[in-house]
Amino acid sequence: MAIYYSSTRNAKEHLTASQAILKGLADDGGLFVPNEIPALDVSLKDLAGMSYQQTAFEVMKLFLTDFTEEELKACIGRAYDSKFDTEEIAPLVEAKGAYYLELFHGATIAFKDMALSILPHLLTTAARKNDVKNEIVILTATSGDTGKAALSGFADVEGTKIIVFYPKGGVSPIQEQQMVTQRGENTCVVGIRGNFDQAQTGVKQMFNDRAFRALLDANGYQLSSANSINIGRLVPQIVYYVYAYAKLLKEGVIADKEPINVVVPTGNFGNILAAFYAKNMGLPIAKLICASNENKVLYDFFESGTYDKNREFILTSSPSMDILISSNLERLIYHIAGNDADKNADLMKALGVNGAYSITPEMKKKLADFAGGFATEAQTAETIRTLYDETGYIIDTHTAVAASVYNRYREAEGDAAKTVIASTASPFKFTRSVMTAIDPSYDELGDFKLVDELSRIGNVKVPQAIEEIRNAPVLHDHLCSVEDMSVAVKEFLAIED
Ligand SMILES: *Cc1c(COP(=O)(O)O)cnc(C)c1O
């Protein structure tokens, strides 16, 4: 059955999957949503016998219905290959009674690789299918991990250019080093004097600026997005929840159809939304546990039904979750409003004007499957330390936020369901925070000394992604103000007004 996509703010426009991937964001500023969430059409038992690539096909074919089998399998084959340092692509590791789904074995050692290694292929396939003649320009705002993963995915992909904006001083040293050493003629990295939300808002403004888009078009360019608002990122993220469930079933950890819980360290709400979609496809997930750091706007939302971004922005040791406007939450709001674009548009307008909105009690009832929690900086560090002391397993700060929230959830609710924790980054990406959590005296060591020490005490090889940047030259040093983001784009594309 063909699935079509419409905006969360306007029910009128209907797009195919490939058109929605090309556009990224709807003209009205809304996000593309499928007209229905398709049900899995293979049994969980059959899935238990499948590879990651086969699972990806079974899930993605249901959403991307205008891609041929051949096209989709080609995209999957090119994405999930030896760029990943484990054959399983997404291994599951048991520690202290929870199952860590390691989503960080791709080129840039964070979970964004799961979707961003396939997005360039989906996008160029979509361009071919729709006879696009323009070159595609990817504009991306990053809180640290998206940027590098997108750069790595798109570098030297023909017919594309990519420009990444990151908050200067708001990402980890390793993250910054990874980005500014990016190779590829078609890549551009710009630091902005502002935080992630400002970078993201600036990117959204360029998308919504008709005059700017017309200027690009006249020069043979069109914009697309690699941010998690693109449906071409959301759909590949559903795959690993299905894969993880099937793996637990295969290993006899759970019985067929036994419900599991999923815990996701959350920022822009893309990863947990993918788990919500997986659940709605029929995957037996009981609770969706949304874990926040001290920027706990989502926790407050699940508690009170009011989303309020009017608060201090806190820089934490889990920077990829330092977000006050969780863009993908809009898709959930749309769904719990009964797929009502007008109702959603009103709430998003209130968010734009007042920085806040409240959902109705009826909508709130539909959030019963979600549980919200948050971890302070001290709790996050303590979680890393105790897990290491007790098991030798080292997790990164984002994953530790999730583990900390889960430990308290399990204790408070007495919920013994088998639980998958999305492990979203390698500890090598946030080495200083991770190592000082284990022992504060590590703070005296330099960044790469710390990397070697982490490898030693955790008994894990230094990932290729880190080895690569040890001595790499800085290729990008552009810094600009939030107001000048579009100027930076024009400069890179050599466009004159
Ligand atoms: C992006 C990111 C997150 C947050 O994911 P969302 O989909 O934005 O909620 C969590 N952890 C890491 C390491 C990330 O890179």
Written overview of the protein:
Helix content is 45%, strand content 16%. The strands form four sheets. It has a six-stranded mixed beta sheet with strand order 4-5-15-10-11-14, with helices on both faces. A five-stranded parallel beta sheet has the order 9-6-7-8-16, sandwiched between helices. It contains 22 helices and 16 strands. The N and C termini lie far apart (45 Å). The model has no long low-confidence stretch (mean pLDDT 95). By secondary structure, it is of the alpha/beta class. Helix 7 (145-154) links the parallel strand 6 (135-141) and strand 7. The chain has a domain at 92-110 and 232-447 and 454-459: Rossmann fold (3-Layer(aba) Sandwich), CATH 3.40.50.
Largest sheet: 6 strands, mixed
Number of helices: 22
* Low-pLDDT runs: none
Strand order of the largest sheet: 4-5-15-10-11-14
Helix content: 40-55%
- CATH architecture classification name of the domain at 92-110 and 232-447 and 454-459: 3-Layer(aba) Sandwich
CATH class of the domain at 92-110 and 232-447 and 454-459: Alpha Beta
Features:
16 strands; single chain; Rossmann fold; 45% helix; 6-stranded mixed β-sheet; alpha/beta; 5-stranded parallel β-sheet; 497 residues; binds pyridoxal-5'-phosphate; 16% strand
SSE topology sketch:
Blueprint: E1 5-7, E2 10-15, H1 17-23, E3 32-34, H2 44-47, H3 52-63, H4 69-79, E4 92-95, E5 98-102, H5 112-116, H6 119-129, E6 135-141, H7 145-154, E7 160-167, H8 173-180, E8 187-193, H9 196-208, H10 210-218, E9 221-225, H11 231-250, E10 260-265, H12 270-280, E11 285-292, H13 297-304, E12 306-308, H14 329-336, H15 341-354, E13 356-358, H16 361-365, E14 370-374, H17 377-391, H18 397-413, E15 419-423, H19 431-438, H20 447-458, H21 464-469, E16 478-481, H22 485-493
Parallel strand pairs: 5-15, 6-7, 6-9, 7-8, 8-16, 10-11, 10-15, 11-14
Antiparallel strand pairs: 1-2, 1-3, 4-5, 12-13
The chain binds pyridoxal-5'-phosphate.
